[in-house]
């Protein structure tokens, strides 16, 4: 098992300073970062569409890493991880399982956002014994209404962002209003806090393959989520244009005993807009 680097003052708890490491499994070299104190069940973060290690909000990661061993990673074909992106969410889940078991863990908590939440669902359905707790944010179930439209929304917002020389996430993740616009700028700025050892950006081909996988997920038969026994926290904004907010309610209905938080006047990135409210809730949920 890999261990978190310790400094003279204790373990690294700032995501901006977490070293990037690699581990090879199944012929793939997985890039990952880890921080927080060693021991116990780690929290593994599953990232969103087009994202690499550099796309996690430090205001979400750092509070969790104060008390927990946190691991972020690039799945196959993404960022600095080798290989090619699979064209199905289920295959992505198989790769994530390979990565987790290669690190020597037989039980993890998963914190997932957007596409990562789809991968997490596929993983827990296939390997329920591997997952202790689930945090599913900005995501939806297989067969969820509107998920197959993600590509259209994404390309439209990439165009809008290009025309205004903005980051596409400002359009995709946040409302374009008086609260959303400054929250978007602040979020994008936080993603730049790490200045050294930054990840390789996702390739266009990898991004397009991820979009195909999401479309397939949206058009596939719904999975039986009634089997899930893991404590599950679900969160989103009330105006998610990428993965419609109603799908968070759908997940909540289908996963027995799950908890649901819908943040007002916010979009796909509701947890980032309301990081000061959401991070303590996530910390408490994972520590329970």
UniProtKB/TrEMBL annotation:
One Pfam family for this entry, by name?
A: Abhydrolase_1
The superkingdom of the source organism is Bacteria
The AB hydrolase-1 domain covers which part of the protein? 43-272
Q: Give the Gene3D superfamilies listed for this entry.
A: alpha/beta hydrolase
Query: Which SUPFAM superfamilies does the UniProt entry name for this protein?
Result: alpha/beta-Hydrolases
Q: Name one GO molecular function term.
A: catalytic activity
According to UniProt, the name of this protein is Pimeloyl-ACP methyl ester carboxylesterase
Q: Which organism is it from?
A: Agromyces cerinus subsp. cerinus
- Lineage of the native species? Bacteria, Bacillati, Actinomycetota, Actinomycetes, Micrococcales
């Amino acid at each position: 098992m890999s261990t978190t680097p310790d400094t003279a003052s204790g373990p690294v708890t700032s995501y901006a300073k977490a070293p990037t490491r690699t581990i090879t499994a199944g012929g793939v070299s997985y890039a990952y970062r880890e921080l927080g104190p060693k021991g116990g069940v780690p929290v593994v973060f599953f990232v969103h569409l087009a994202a690499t290690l550099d796309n996690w909000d430090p205001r979400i990661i750092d509070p969790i890493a104060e008390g927990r061993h946190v691991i972020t990673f690039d799945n196959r074909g993404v960022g600095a991880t080798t290989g090619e992106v699979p064209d199905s969410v289920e295959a992505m889940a198989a790769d994530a399982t390979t990565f987790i078991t290669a690190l020597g863990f037989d039980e993890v908590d998963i914190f997932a956002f957007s596409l990562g939440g789809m991968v997490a669902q596929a993983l827990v359905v296939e390997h329920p014994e591997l997952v202790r707790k689930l945090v599913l944010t900005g995501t939806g179930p297989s067969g969820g209404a509107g998920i197959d439209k993600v590509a259209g929304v994404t390309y439209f917002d990439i165009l809008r962002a290009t025309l205004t020389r903005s980051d596409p996430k400002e359009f995709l993740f946040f409302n374009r209003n008086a609260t959303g616009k400054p929250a978007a700028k602040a979020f994008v700025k936080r993603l730049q806090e790490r200045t050294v050892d930054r990840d390789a950006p996702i390739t266009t081909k990898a991004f397009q393959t991820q979009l195909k996988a999401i479309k397939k997920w949206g058009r596939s038969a719904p999975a039986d989520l009634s089997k899930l026994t893991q404590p599950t926290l679900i969160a989103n904004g009330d105006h998610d244009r990428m993965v419609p907010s109603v799908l968070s309610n759908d997940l909540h209905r289908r996963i027995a005993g799950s908890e649901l938080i819908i943040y007002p006047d916010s979009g796909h990135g509701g947890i980032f807009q309301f990081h000061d409210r959401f991070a303590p809730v996530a910390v408490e949920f994972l520590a329970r």
